[in-house]
Amino acid sequence: MTDTIDHAVEEIGTDPAAAVAGWLASFEDALAAGDPEAAAELFGASSFWRDLVAFTWNLKTVEGPEGVKDMLASTLDHVKPSDFRTSEEPTEADGVTEAWITFETEVGRGLGHLRLKEGKAWTLLTTLSELKGHEVPKRARRPMGAEHGASKERRTWLEKRRQEAEQLGHETQPYVVIVGGGQGGIALGARLRQLDVPTIIVERHPRPGDSWRNRYKSLCLHDPVWYDHLPYIPFPENWPVFSPKDKIGDWLEMYTRVMELNYWSSTECTSARYDEEAGEWVVVVRREGVDHTLRPKQLVLATGMSGKPNVPSFKGMEDFKGDQHHSSLHPGPDDYRGKKAVVIGSNNSAHDICAALWENDVDVTMVQRTSTHIVRSDSLMEIGLGALYSEEAVESGVTTQKADLIFASLPYRIMHEFQIPLYDQMRERDAEFYERLERAGFMLDFGEDGSGLFMKYLRRGSGYYIDVGASELVADGSIKLISGVGIDRIAEHSVILSDGTELEADLIVYATGYGSMNGWAADLISDEVARKVGKVWGLGSDTRKDPGPWEGEQRNMWKPTQQEGLWFHGGNLHQSRHYSQFLALQLKARYEGIPTPVYGLQEVHHLG
Amino acid sequence: MTDTIDHAVEEIGTDPAAAVAGWLASFEDALAAGDPEAAAELFGASSFWRDLVAFTWNLKTVEGPEGVKDMLASTLDHVKPSDFRTSEEPTEADGVTEAWITFETEVGRGLGHLRLKEGKAWTLLTTLSELKGHEVPKRARRPMGAEHGASKERRTWLEKRRQEAEQLGHETQPYVVIVGGGQGGIALGARLRQLDVPTIIVERHPRPGDSWRNRYKSLCLHDPVWYDHLPYIPFPENWPVFSPKDKIGDWLEMYTRVMELNYWSSTECTSARYDEEAGEWVVVVRREGVDHTLRPKQLVLATGMSGKPNVPSFKGMEDFKGDQHHSSLHPGPDDYRGKKAVVIGSNNSAHDICAALWENDVDVTMVQRTSTHIVRSDSLMEIGLGALYSEEAVESGVTTQKADLIFASLPYRIMHEFQIPLYDQMRERDAEFYERLERAGFMLDFGEDGSGLFMKYLRRGSGYYIDVGASELVADGSIKLISGVGIDRIAEHSVILSDGTELEADLIVYATGYGSMNGWAADLISDEVARKVGKVWGLGSDTRKDPGPWEGEQRNMWKPTQQEGLWFHGGNLHQSRHYSQFLALQLKARYEGIPTPVYGLQEVHHLG
Question: Is the ipTM of this complex over 0.85?
């Protein structure tokens, strides 16, 4: 009996619904009163408010009561937030109360997530989900398709679609031009189409999906299907866990067609210039050999966060008599059977290419210059992603949208703290595997702070391999490994290493990664604009390839840059899906003339 | 207090969960004991057990205890049903208790639905959902895509797919050939692909979806999106309510590609013959001008339940100097602006074509020879379909699968009783509309028993128009109407009616409907086989164009016919989706050599 009473008291004391309701009421009172200070007091000393567009017209994380106060002082007057409610029953575990919330602003509706610790906010996520009066026409709002009744002015769907395709970019100008028609450009194009923003996607390949199809033939997605959905049309329930590259290519092609995107294939963007006076871009594209000038207000570079190859310049490269190319241009192993290949690099592409060469009886050597983080695909799926992106997660009600928001709710500043224990688990689980690799001479790391793959991806977009089989070949010597050396020079038929070793080679693959996306801005626009916007990607974590100071969000991605009307979009399929929503809403608001005062426009600390 | 007690007693007395549990336990006991008589006693005097493949390897409805006893006496020994359970909480309303059930048989797993009245079964639906050991590789069973590990025998997805496409129909034979690559053939092809049954779909048009694209340009689906989903890839949530024909064409094209169907387009099936000795078909197809012979074990005609045009033969047709064609060949109104058109017929196509002609300033006259059932699209959506197929239905948890099973659970014998009140409602709601039409001389009906559109569709597949606007044009005289007359003959520039009226015409459209699908069997195979299988479609309702005797299920559709290895598939998108499951399982079982003793193979009462 005492037990029962104690339990009841405890339940009342920590009733998560009441705690959240109380907090939200106080928060809303402070906001309604226009009192940033009072609102800030509801946040813990160590706390994070991450806002995706709803308050800041930016992607922004502010920290602690001071950060909250500063942000609200700048935004409260025009944002006019209201109507904060929970959308499902709050929960409590380990002293943290969690709640899903909805809210409104003057111009939009939002979704959010709140974590309370000891009655104060620890993390708050606010995201803009739609603009009032500009909702996506889906579900109950879906278009009728047929226009009932009879009219002598009727045009059919096909006639309208054809007319639009003929006129856009000629008689009429798109509001947005997206350079790059891979998954990023396609996902953003689909969002903009649904929001009725005239958009042209420019892609140099003949068909949507070719940027996947043209890569080495054994390539499959390294991320599982649950993580990879595009907006609006999820992969079907029979879709493979890891899409083969040609299959994902076909999906992107059909998606582009079915979503009715204005997709200019076989079209290369050759230059872009911002016409300050007109407030628009002058974009020159060559479409099937003919130059066109487009004049969009907004220019999005979606050329791939891994789009611009880092081609190294080693002494003697010009003398090499065999085949040599960057990994992005590697055609696959078929032509090299029985020959000798040297692959310089030890990340994802290097491993995939080495394994495919070995499978085709090529004598292959991997040259590892610096340490690499290896994580086994199974372990990553189960320990790293399973809670949010897996069949089990779907079964237990974690929809893709929910998973994306949970992931987004973890502030980058403390994300590594959540990641480290997961990678400790993987390290233990796969201890024997890692031992075998080290015995073969492979230089391993788990990131400078042991936070593993995802943080490496966010910080630098490189430095890892998700093992789907190549590591065993390295461990057992099938793929020969030379590690801890540099390249001295390339000779006619060999690679000469810094320790003097000479590796005979018929083929050299430079799996040397990719540069910052503002390299594209330099090529297409100007060095000046590239310097003005600065480095793209990374958090400012002060780890290798991601210098400080701390920036709080990914540099220049999916948000306003220092160059008016210039945006960067991309990332993996998850990011292309999730962040295309926020970039599309930012563009739509500008298209509709809705004021978009940006809070905390990022500063430039690094040029590229 | 008395109230409360009474209420409690009442609740116990009618507890639907207990009632269902009790019934299922008795039912399973009787089945386990191999006692058809005991099982039959659990059914009411007026009762219906509809089985889709699970017990009968057929689509079969048996009636009353006698029907149940007969069916079980023939099937119980080999079916070995077991493990009947409810899958959600049973409900009770108006004296009928309803339950969703699952069960197993010796070879498969099933879903079902049960309605009890006064403790006895009123309706029972049993459906086969999968074969044990041959489950569809979806969700947790989805393929990996990438094969982890390294192997010198590795072939990529693309290499395998290409090899299959090159070999199937040449070095290797398909187990199934589907003639007709419209929605029916495509949906069945997708199911068979997922079940790993080698299949070729033969389609005369160049691209999947062309059978829609080639029709008159104003055509949109008359059924709403919720009713139209294909298997595995539902339409996205932004899909229009009524798909324009070219948009559905594009969807079918991408679906065929993404589902990896072996789809031989630009291929005409020119003949088929059953080789009794070999137990296989000899199917000759002309693919891009070259003849191939295919030797499948199973031949499916999916040429459209509205596939074979009824072209009338009126006196003088050969003398007509203008354009004349069957509605299926009508190109749309563009070439007829300012001219005079006569459309013979008054069903869906006639109305759509008349409206499009009027919209393009054609002087158009509709000749109505017999009465037509008209139902307004809005009313049909709200009253006829809304409970099962609508955004509201989806919101309230009625998934497409559930809607299909609820619909399937209503036995055809009594379905009109459920339909009549709905059409009474529509008649009342739209009374003024119907009055206007009748004032214009239009001959209306609601089916012989007032059961409206869906029963007309099931019984004869014709005799109605879903009004999306043309009826107002008829009512206000924009479309001229001549009704209650026949055609006497066609002259050089006119149509002469049976009452002597002469209608000038530059264009005559014969919107005269379609014949029975066994007409295709006559063309492709032989008159003998066409007669052997008999009329396709209809229930034997003893109403116009659907002569008795009562057959209980659609004649010859989706189930074994009197011709070994010959099947008919098709219908609207709903039927193509729903029944392709049962046809695919029947074919898969045969492919795997699982015994499929057919109970109650249909008899032939009508030749065509």
Answer: yes
